[in-house]
Amino acid sequence: MRKLSAGSDGWQALINDRNAGCFTTRSNPGPVTIDIASGGYAMSFDHIFVARVLFTLMTAGWAILTVVADFNKTHATNPAWTPHARFHVVWQISSYVGFGLLAFALIWWPGPLAVERLYLVALMGAIVYAAFFAALIAMPVYGGAAYDNNGYQPFNAPIPIIANKWDANITAFSVQLVILVAGLLAATGAFAG
C-alpha cells in the first residue's frame, strides 16, 4: 500500500471521489491510504461525515422539532396565552426554521471550508441552546415557568438520579447539547486515529 499525504498531488481528487460529491475539503486532511493493488480504499473513520450527521440531528432538534412541539395548543394556539405571546412564539419558530435551513445547507453543501462551516453550525446551535438555558436560569427574574398547566407536563424519570420527574424541554435540550458536543469532537477529529 502507498500513502498519499496532505501535500501529495491528487489527494483532493481522491477525497472527492470517495465521498461521491460530498467534498471533504480541509486545511489538513491527513493521510489518505489506498490499496493500489486492488484499487480499493482501506477502512477509515470519516469524522467529517460523522460530524455532519450529528450536526444534522442537533439542528433538527431546534429547527424542526420546535415546529412539531410548539405549533399546537401548548404554545402557538394556547388559549391561556395572550395573543402577543403567541405572536412571539410563531416568530421564534419561523426564525428557527429559516436558520435551520441555512444550517442544513452549511452542513451538506459540497465545497470548500467544510470543517469551518461545521464550526459555524455548531456556533448557531450553541447560541440557541445557550439562550434556552439562560432563559431557564433567569425565570425568577421575569416570572417564567418551564411548562404551563395545559402544556407539556414533566414525565417520570427513566433514571431518577436528579429528580423523579423530568421536564420535557430541559431533557430534550440537554440531549441536544450532548449531540452538539459530540459533533464538535467529531469535527475536530478528536476521535480520529
What is the gist of this entry?
With 193 residues, the protein is mainly α. The protein folds into 2 domains: 1-44, no CATH class; 46-188. The protein has helices at residues 11-18, 47-63, 65-70, 83-108, 114-137, 139-142, 168-188, and strands at 2-4, 32-35, 40-41, 155-156, 165-166.
Intertermini distance: 18 Å
Counting helices, strands and paired strands, the structural category is mainly alpha
**What is the number of E strands?**
5
Radius of gyration: 21 Å
Fraction of residues in helices?
Answer: 40-55%
Question: What's the helix count?
Answer: 7
Report the order of strands and helices.
Answer: EHEEHHHHHEEH
Domain count: 2
Main β-sheet, in a few words?
Answer: 3 strands, antiparallel
Q: What percentage of amino acids are in beta strands?
A: 5-15%
General form: globular
Mean pLDDT score, rounded? Answer: 81
Low-confidence stretches: 1-34
Widest beta sheet: strand line-up: 1-2-3
